[in-house]
Amino acid sequence: MIDLRSDTVTRPDAAMREAARTAAVGDDVYDEDPTVNELEARAAEAVGMDAALYVPTGTMGNQIAARTHADRGDELLCERDSHIYNWEVGGLAQLSGLQARPIDGGARGVITPDAVHEGFVERTDHRPGTGLLALENTHNQKGGVAITADEIDAAAAAAHEHDIPTHVDGARLFNASVALDTPAPRLLDNADSVMFCLSKGLGAPVGSMLAGSEAFIDRAHRNRKLLGGGMRQAGIVAAPGLEALDNVDRLAEDHTNARTLAAGLDAIDGLAAETPETNIVLVETDRTAEAFIEAIAAEGVRASAFGQHIVRFCTHWDVDGDDIERAIECVERAMS
Ligand SMILES: *Cc1c(COP(=O)(O)O)cnc(C)c1O
């Protein structure tokens, strides 16, 4: 089976397993796990922020960020198809009493400065007030769109004009960085915090990082505990994360594989795929997504339904160029 449902399906390699086995550990809730501390320092440096916090999942990282930046009752501006709004179980409302104001970011999911100004709500006796702008890079549901430094700068600058901070959901930030050939810190020049996943294309078994200023991370540390994310000898799971940080350049292979896959699938009758910017290929099928997924699974390829007729294929560490060629052949057979 060639599993292209998600870049989260990768399994840790021998080096990661060895790193976990031999990791120095301590109680991370007391900040005493040397491996976690090293990971947090390296992660902060990798994104050009002052400090970072190891969190079990990207979802928790985003939810901590929202809770730490905004006050109960605030609005949060986000893209209509963003993960934080659609795929986190309504956590903004459930966990932090925040109201999302979704903005349509068009085909690429880019929030413009005009959209920020238009969506901003001034706090009055009648209105909640906007507490945070959340951006997503790469944009998952738009097909792994790599949003440029200029686009992020402009949206965040508009938010700052209203004195509101900007959080970047960078679950796949390094995919954007590699695709755009822009250092990750440059993508975050105007951002106040970022979350990125170690457990996606970078290949770690567990974990994400939340980064920002020292003061922000101090408060985030408390909110992590509140949400149940205070882990003890977490160095065991953080150690593979240190290995994962060395996998950034490798993401370019995933992008090449995604382009090959998109071209191969687009050439099949009944399918349409645009050239992907990173490792996510969205395919439109003339069947229902469910029927298509069932048909290709029978031939040995797995993908995810992303809309009534849209299916997502994700390339990752555990598939190589040969797997991609085989996957295209399998889909061809399923469609004939
Ligand atoms: C995967 C993902 C997350 C959440 O990460 P988990 O570790 O699965 O909770 C957040 N945002 C985006 C854009 C993602 O793709």
UniProtKB/TrEMBL annotation:
A Pfam entry, by short name: Beta_elim_lyase
The name this protein goes by in its record: Threonine aldolase
Gene3D superfamilies, alphabetized: Aspartate Aminotransferase, domain 1 (3.90.1150.10), Type I PLP-dependent aspartate aminotransferase-like (Major domain) (3.40.640.10)
Modified residues (N6-(pyridoxal phosphate)lysine): 200
GO cellular component, one term: cytosol
Xref: InterPro entries: ArAA_b-elim_lyase/Thr_aldolase, Low_specificity_L-TA-like, PyrdxlP-dep_Trfase, PyrdxlP-dep_Trfase_major, PyrdxlP-dep_Trfase_small
Cofactor: pyridoxal 5'-phosphate
Superkingdom of the source species: Archaea
Swiss-Prot/TrEMBL keywords: Lyase, Pyridoxal phosphate
Annotated GO MF terms: L-allo-threonine aldolase activity
SUPFAM superfamilies, alphabetized: PLP-dependent transferases (SSF53383)
Start and end residues of each Aromatic amino acid beta-eliminating lyase/threonine aldolase domain: 3-286
Family named by the database record: Belongs to the threonine aldolase family.
Keyword Ion transport: no
GO biological process: glycine biosynthetic process; L-threonine catabolic process
